[in-house]
Design brief:
The chain is α/β, with parallel strands linked by helices. The chain has two domains: 8-143 and 279-355, Response regulator (Rossmann fold), CATH 3.40.50; 145-276 and 359-369, 3-Layer(aba) Sandwich (Rossmann fold), CATH 3.40.50.2300. The protein has twelve helices and 14 strands. The chain has helices at residues 2-25, 40-59, 79-92, 104-117, 145-159, 173-188, 207-216, 227-239, 255-265, 280-297, 303-322, 326-333; strands at residues 27-33, 68-74, 97-100, 120-122, 138-139, 164-170, 192-199, 220-224, 245-248, 269-274, 337-340, 343-346, 357-363, 366-369. A seven-stranded mixed beta sheet has the order 7-6-8-9-10-13-14, sandwiched between helices. A five-stranded parallel beta sheet has the order 2-1-3-4-5, sandwiched between helices. A two-stranded antiparallel sheet has the order 11-12. Helix 9 (255-265) links the parallel strand 9 and strand 10. Helix 2 (40-59) runs parallel beside helix 11 (303-322) and helix 5 packs parallel to helix 6. The longest helix is centred in the first third of the chain and has 24 residues, at 2-25.
């Protein structure tokens, strides 16, 4: 009986050792998005996209025979939370690379850390101009706010013949930077900023700012915030009978936002963001991704999971080519061209993706890309 128990114990120890050994052989990639707070929905979608991409890769044999394992951390949507998450992922979990974060303010806070430690970080939708730079360790698939602002202002000035602009945005590093670029380009195109209003995220009451905007009689309003704030803003606009044309950032192309207030915005909501000039290869990949995503989650994928999935694909391809970490991985990303589900991607040394912008208008509950050749600067 005693020998039998010993054999069982030894078998259990051997099995546990095998699991530990197997986990040690996995390629660990960090994940850093808000999994709590106002932006938790986006973080959850990004988490699903990373797991989706990892499952797909592992089923196909992984990277040079090794499986990919994501280590998920909540950055709480704050720079402080981001720093804590990155330090844990690098120092304790020993990850090879990191996917995240969502907000540029967080990415800027952790940039010195990943640069010093030479850990590649892929922030799919980071767009603050200060993030990009020579020999960068942070990569993004989004267009810079300078480029996006140029496209917004050119479209509204030349196509819509607008003259008067009002701005409404959350007081964050990224939105503040974007508002300055909007102001710069709008004035260069001969327009006038008739109102410049900001607020703290989660304020709930925006009637004071909206009343000022209404009184300024703008031709259109540019606004940038979370989808939760945006829903309340649009409803309060309706209460105040503000029927002005609106322009938003692509992160607000959020099904929950459109479901909640889309009928109030039909035909007068414009979005600017990375153009979706998809090749046949990208179209096929996007259709396959969408189909499987809908089967898994009973809903169409949003902007954040699409860009996060493409970031994972570039990271995986670079790991196969240049190694799973350090300078080899960074160098393999630079110069990489890929037909992703979000379009053509051309990664540069400064961390940018060489992506063009496009204009989309809400029609019949969906954003429809406009045929316009003036987006290139």
């Amino acid at each position: 009986m005693k020998k039998h128990l010993i054999r069982i114990a030894l078998t259990a120890i051997f099995a546990l050792s095998s699991v530990i050994l197997l986990q040690a052989q996995n390629i660990k990639i960090g994940f850093m998005f808000p999994l709590s707070g106002q932006a938790a929905l986006h973080g959850d979608q990004a988490k699903r996209a990373c797991q989706f991409a990892a499952d797909e890769l592992n089923a196909a044999g992984g990277i040079n025979g090794k499986k990919v394992e994501f280590i998920f951390e909540d950055d709480t949507g704050t720079p402080k939370g981001g720093v804590s998450a990155v330090q844990k992922l690098i120092e304790i979990d020993k990850v090879s690379a990191i996917v995240g974060g969502l907000f540029s303010s967080i990415v800027l806070a952790v940039r010195p850390i990943v640069t010093e430690k030479k850990v590649v970080m892929f922030a799919p939708l980071a767009s603050h101009s200060d993030i990009f730079g020579e020999h960068n360790w942070i990569f993004s698939l989004d267009a810079s706010p300078d480029d996006s602002s140029y496209v917004i202002c050119k479209y509204w000035a030349e196509v819509k013949k607008a003259k008067r602009l009002a701005m409404l945005y959350t007081m964050t590093d990224n939105q503040l930077a974007s508002s300055k670029f909007i102001d710069k380009w709008w004035k260069k195109f001969g327009g006038t900023v008739v109102a410049n209003e900001s607020f703290t995220a989660g304020s709930n009451d925006y009637r004071l700012q909206l009343s000022k905007i209404k009184a300024s009689r703008p031709d259109f309003v540019w606004f940038d915030t979370t989808y939760q704030d945006a829903i309340l803003i649009v409803r309060q606009m309706a209460e105040l009978n503000i029927t002005t044309q609106l322009c938003i950032s692509p992160q607000l192309e959020e099904p929950k936002f459109i479901e909640a207030v889309g009928k109030l915005l039909e035909g007068r909501l414009t979005s600017v963001g990375p153009a979706e000039n998809l090749s046949e290869t990208s179209k096929a990949a996007k259709q396959a991704f969408d189909k499987k995503w809908i089967e898994l989650y009973s809903a169409e994928p949003e902007v954040v999971p699409r860009f996060t999935y493409d970031a994972c694909q570039i990271l995986f391809a670079a790991m196969k080519k240049g190694g799973t970490s350090g300078e080899g991985l960074r160098s393999a990303i630079v110069g990489m061209t890929r037909e992703g589900i979000t379009g053509t991607i051309k990664m540069a040394d400064d961390g940018g993706s060489g992506r063009e912008n496009g204009i989309r208008i809400l029609q019949n509950g969906k954003f429809v890309t406009q045929e316009w050749t003036g987006a290139r600067r």
